[in-house]
Amino acid sequence: GRIIGKGTYGSVDIVENRVTKQLYARKRCQLSPDNLSGLKPFQREVKIMKMVAHRHVVRLVSAYVQDSCLNIVMSPLAQGTLRQYLDLPTMPQGSAPRIRSWVGCLSSALSYLHANRIRHADIKPQNLLVKESDVYISDFGISRIVSEPDSTSSSISPMTPMYAAPEIAQHQPHGRKADVFSLGCVVFEMLT
């Protein structure tokens, strides 16, 4: 399919269901025979995506391994990332009400994830997908399932430093509040 995004993990392209003609996004990650390190995060991401069902979280359609590639097919097929939207030279007409709506959608989705003991751990504009007036949380590659909603971890998170809570930057125990801090950074960026 046509590639619509690239990252350290691999690429995202467009795939079509041959029967329904429905378009989906497919995240692909190359596995090499001597390096199977990508398999565990892939399995964790698929497990987490199977657990969630929220209007503003991407939905898992299928996951499979083919030609030494790990594949995650998801819906909806977005028009782009929030990062691409924020990088536009000028904000489109009617942006303020849209941003207000997006903040509510993302807050609801993050609250849902936390209630289901899922820490995203990498909330940033590149992982937030935009489709028309909706926004979706995506990319659960470094997310974690925690035993208790309020539990903390002192493991070093590989998240993007610009959106990292101070406790992560200082290698201190951190919990779901770190996701909330990251969302706050995204909201601040949307408003400035």
Kindly describe this structure.
With about 190 residues, the chain is of the alpha+beta class. It has two domains: about 5-75, Phosphorylase Kinase, domain 1, CATH 3.30.200; about 80-190, Transferase(Phosphotransferase) domain 1 (Transferase(Phosphotransferase), domain 1), CATH 1.10.510. The protein contains five helices and ten strands, in the order E-E-E-H-E-E-E-H-H-E-E-E-E-H-H. The chain has helices spanning about 40-50, 80-85, 95-115, 165-170, 175-190; strands at about 5, 10-15, 25-30, 60-65, 70-75, 80, 120, 130, 135, 145. Strands 1-2-3-5-4 form a five-stranded antiparallel beta sheet, with helices on one face. It has a three-stranded antiparallel beta sheet with strand order 6-8-9. Strands 7-10 form a two-stranded antiparallel ribbon. Helix 3 (about 95-115) packs antiparallel against helix 5 (about 175-190). About 30% of the residues are buried. The model has no long low-confidence stretch (mean pLDDT about 90). GO terms for molecular function: ATP binding; protein serine/threonine kinase activity. It comes from Lophium mytilinum. InterPro entries: Kinase-like_dom_sf, Prot_kinase_dom, Ser/Thr_kinase_AS.
